[in-house]
């Protein structure tokens, strides 16, 4: 059984070369390079990169009452879930052997850089998902970068989410600025947030000296369904995600041929009057699939190969089906759980693994903003227990310096005892 084809994007070698040039220029020339690339890629150069307090207030005032209320609702939901998640991350102290004390601490990452994409629409949920968990985690500073052409509401979203500083810089040049620092923008310790192919490639190239959350590709949604699935609902959910990008991957895996045919017909019917059909249509045509599985076991096996970013379960017993699944970004159990709720405001994070990465990682969460750092301390009993095997292992490996360091404390203790 083979995985479905990946959505095609810009030529990888051309993107890699362009991004490398941008990174080198920003590292060498700082703000001057940012101005050059803002003019080249965005068609404008902001008077100043950092958004002032007055500009924040102006952007906030520009939000209508309902939009602000909905944004604050989403912030509170994401914050509450992040706080609940953080409560599961506990420091540890254990005496593994008499006198051998081991443990770990939960340490917030000091400075986070959140990339906030501009996109076709003002996606107010984007800054919420990257900034709010960082503030809950206790990161000392969170800076946000967004394209200078971004809608003013995006500035308001960054502000409400808790960004300490906001900069009007987008694209690969923003990733470079956050990775290396410029005269205006401080270097960060970790960069989070989705973006286009150039942003993604920039994150890949700067990884190492700076941390990144993940390399995210085009959005994905798959639905697992049996004969109880509702064709109209499934088609609606597939197209809702397809309107993100022409490269979005959308799919249905079902044990019912009848349902498969009904969903296929329903997608065509709904596309006829969908205002975003210019995007959703090509996504469905080029990257959509419907797979009919011989059994639930085959359906689950295929789903685990795909490891979809968003995975909805529409079966007679969705909770039972869900327990059998292993690979996904985020799971939506039952027909009432729509991806759009997570995309916007229910509390789970919408920054999720794509391109099969759900096989080995989950999505962005409060734990992405902390380090679990171990420590140890020993008293004399602990040294007596671990020094002899450490000496023997060092000797067998030919590492005399290691053996001496291990033996030194043991000799001190034995000399004292003598």
UniProtKB/TrEMBL annotation:
Substrate binds at residues 219, 241, 244, 310, 343, 397, 402. One of its GO terms (cellular component) is cytosol. It is an enzyme of class 1 (oxidoreductase). It comes from the Bacteria. GO terms for molecular function: histidinol dehydrogenase activity; metal ion binding; NAD binding. Keywords: Metal-binding, NAD, Oxidoreductase, Zinc. Belongs to the histidinol dehydrogenase family. This is Histidinol dehydrogenase/sulfopropanediol 3-dehydrogenase. It comes from Chelatococcus caeni.
